[in-house]
Amino acid sequence: MKKILNTPIVSEDIASLRVGDVVFLNGHIVTCRDVGHRRLIELGRELPVDLEGLAIFHAGPIVVKDGDGWKMISIGPTTSMRMERFEDEFIERTGVKLIVGKGGMGPRTAEACKKHKALHAVFPGGCAVLAATEVEEIERVEWEDLGMPEALWVCRVKEFGPLIISIDTEGNNLFEENKARYNESKGPIIEEINRQVRFIK
Hints:
Layout: E1 4-6, H1 11-14, E2 22-31, H2 34-41, E3 55-57, E4 62-66, E5 69-74, H3 84-94, E6 98-101, H4 107-116, E7 119-122, H5 128-133, E8 135-142, E9 152-167, H6 174-196
Parallel strand pairs: 1-2, 2-3, 3-6, 6-7
Antiparallel strand pairs: 2-9, 4-5, 7-9, 8-9
Helix pairs in contact: 2-3, 3-4
């Protein structure tokens, strides 16, 4: 059965989720990447969107005008690690509960997720057009002066996902755990390869 999160998300909704779990999102998600984070953290500008209990998406969408509104054409994730230096303070200041992006994030984000009971999740790469079909409506856009990729697009979504939990509310980090397992196992494998090709000069 699909695990579906509904915004606004509260801590109890996500307390039992662990890294590797797959969830889908109903409600609101707001695109927010590099410049949006910098405006809040470095420049001290208040966000024009209340993110308490909501989700953000590290994404630069492709959007077109549709009558008086907007239509989502493509919305693929961008690399979350670019926001690592901002994300802990961003979580603390905004109350955001779900951060979605591509790839993992580091220890600062993991600690903030543990402290403030939030999640980081991965949207599979290469599925930008699929993601766009799960956007029911673009309700509004803020900071449009930043240009299409960096603006804050406030989207209402239905079963948005699949989202793979990569950092849970206990601070467990799927990418770091996998990296550690790989590093533990690669030594004997490299030794075996070297043994088999030692005749090569």
